[in-house]
């Protein structure tokens, strides 16, 4: 497993990071910042630019020798007049990374409405069986599932002869077949199905023991740990030594191999992995919750039915307006994929139809009505995790412009991160002229970085922009710094 994957997979407390890793991070940041500083001088914070100056200021950034092998796609327009202030390969295809979510959330808002909620229902069958129907709620937690169990108890149900899980609402692959293996075994690539609980992930701790001994593996729920065959080849090393842990999952999904070392005085790691079988995971957790409410279950089964009549309990997700915030502000892949599959609700349910495929078709029709032609993008998923996604900066800008003219414009816009304030932009643009006035969606894959959204220059009209970098051998921080410099230029525009 790569070091990159390790950093993504392990949610570390700051106390867990060793001095060597801190120095590595610091040295990387210093090196990349020095590289850019030596080759170009950022504009002073209080300088104002005429729009025509962008034709020389932006090339000064993107033609840096560091980027001689890089593809840039850029489009900057006035949001109302659609006047183009700068364009470079705006009509060409690029791998957009999580900028894909801009299209998915725009279509979801248009088709489902801001008040749409996912509903998880329990029905009483004529033969006394209890059927729980999952509809792909990405926000469902064990706390909310407990509320569902409590509703059953309030109805006087203390014994269930047959608990049926109905997973027919979402059809087809639960993991996108175009995702890479390192993504599939990461928490950000969790499966999306009719039943989603705790974002279909589980966590466990890796804690040091006596020097020379393997660390202990414990979980919040040991039932989940017991579902895996764990090969623990890690070792506890003396205090203050470097901690380096790798976690691999085999292709069958049943074996975890843990390698590396952990310092004797370090705090436990919290590792988060995707579940393999969402139905079984949901069932195990729900049975535990039912037992805590003194509700017994004789047997369980999984089957589908179209005859839902006697609903006796239900829970709902927050409204779509809130789900969009989690999707875009925090760039949540599972939420985006769930929303894509929810778009399939607009089509009549037909057997053997892949919900994601139907969702993509609905998305295409929805965007077409907004004026975004299907030949300007090509999607394989709703989150941007697939490298088969291709979107032009022009398509992203047109989407942002079109949604800004709808009654849902404010709902859509508030779902985007704010520069220097929250989400994936919280640490960017601080102490610059762009802080607090940029709302944009980030995107990052290896070799691809993107940023698209809105900016409100104090001395100019509101703008919409899309900047995508592809085929780069430079570290992502270097690419982000260059993109941010372009955006800072936009905040300094004035009418001339």
Automatic annotation (TrEMBL):
Keyword Magnesium: no
Keywords (A to Z) from UniProt: Hydrolase
One Pfam family per UniProt: Peptidase_S13
InterPro entries (alphabetical): Beta-lactam/transpept-like, Peptidase_S13
MF annotations from Gene Ontology: serine-type carboxypeptidase activity
PANTHER family the UniProt entry points to: D-ALANYL-D-ALANINE CARBOXYPEPTIDASE (PTHR30023), PENICILLIN-SENSITIVE CARBOXYPEPTIDASE A (PTHR30023:SF0)
Protein name, entry field: D-alanyl-D-alanine carboxypeptidase/D-alanyl-D-alanine-endopeptidase
Species of origin: Richelia sinica FACHB-800
């Amino acid at each position: 497993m790569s070091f990159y994957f390790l950093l993504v997979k392990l949610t570390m407390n700051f106390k867990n990071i060793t001095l060597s890793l801190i120095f590595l991070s610091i040295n990387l940041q210093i090196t990349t910042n020095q590289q850019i500083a030596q080759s170009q001088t950022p504009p002073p914070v209080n300088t104002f630019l005429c729009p025509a100056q962008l034709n020389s200021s932006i090339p000064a950034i993107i033609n840096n020798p560091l980027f001689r092998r890089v593809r840039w796609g850029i489009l900057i327009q006035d949001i109302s007049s659609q006047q183009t202030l700068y364009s470079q390969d705006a009509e060409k295809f690029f791998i957009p990374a999580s900028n894909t979510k801009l299209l998915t959330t725009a279509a979801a808002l248009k088709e489902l409405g801001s008040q749409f909620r996912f509903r998880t229902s329990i029905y009483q069958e004529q033969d006394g069986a209890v059927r729980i129907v999952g509809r792909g709620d990405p926000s469902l937690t064990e706390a909310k599932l407990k509320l569902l169990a409590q509703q059953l108890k309030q109805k006087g149900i203390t014994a269930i002869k047959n608990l049926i899980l109905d997973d027919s609402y979402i059809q087809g692959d639960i993991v996108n077949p175009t995702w890479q293996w390192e993504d599939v075994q990461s928490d950000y690539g969790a499966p999306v199905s009719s039943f989603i609980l705790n974002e279909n992930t589980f966590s466990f701790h890796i804690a040091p023991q006596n020097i020379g001994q393997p660390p202990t593996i414990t979980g919040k729920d040991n039932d989940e740990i017991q579902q895996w065959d764990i090969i623990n080849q890690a070792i506890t090393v003396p205090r203050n030594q470097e901690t380096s842990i790798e976690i691999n999952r085999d292709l069958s999904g049943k074996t975890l191999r843990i390698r590396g070392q952990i310092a004797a005085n370090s705090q436990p790691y919290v590792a988060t992995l995707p579940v393999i079988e969402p139905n079984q995971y949901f069932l195990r957790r729900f049975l535990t919750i039912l037992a805590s409410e003194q509700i017994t279950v004789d047997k369980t089964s999984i089957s589908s039915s179209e005859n839902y009549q006697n609903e006796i309990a239900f829970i709902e997700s927050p409204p779509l307006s809130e789900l969009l915030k989690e999707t875009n502000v925090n760039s949540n892949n599972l939420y985006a994929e769930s929303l894509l599959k929810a778009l399939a609700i607009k089509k009549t349910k037909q057997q053997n139809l892949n919900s994601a495929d139907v969702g993509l078709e609905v998305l295409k029709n929805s965007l077409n009505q907004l004026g975004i032609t299907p030949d300007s993008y090509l999607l394989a998923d709703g989150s941007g995790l697939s490298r088969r996604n291709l979107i032009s900066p022009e398509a992203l800008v047109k989407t942002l412009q079109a949604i800004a003219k709808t009654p849902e414009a404010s709902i859509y816009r508030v779902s985007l991160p704010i520069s220097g304030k929250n989400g994936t932009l919280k640490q960017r643009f601080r102490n610059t002229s762009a802080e607090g006035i940029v709302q944009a969606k980030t995107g990052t894959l290896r070799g691809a970085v993107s940023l698209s959204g809105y900016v409100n220059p104090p001395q100019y009209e509101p703008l919409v922009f899309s900047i995508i970098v592809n085929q780069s051998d430079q570290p992502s921080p270097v690419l982000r710094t260059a993109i941010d410099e372009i955006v800072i230029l936009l905040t300094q525009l004035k009418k001339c």
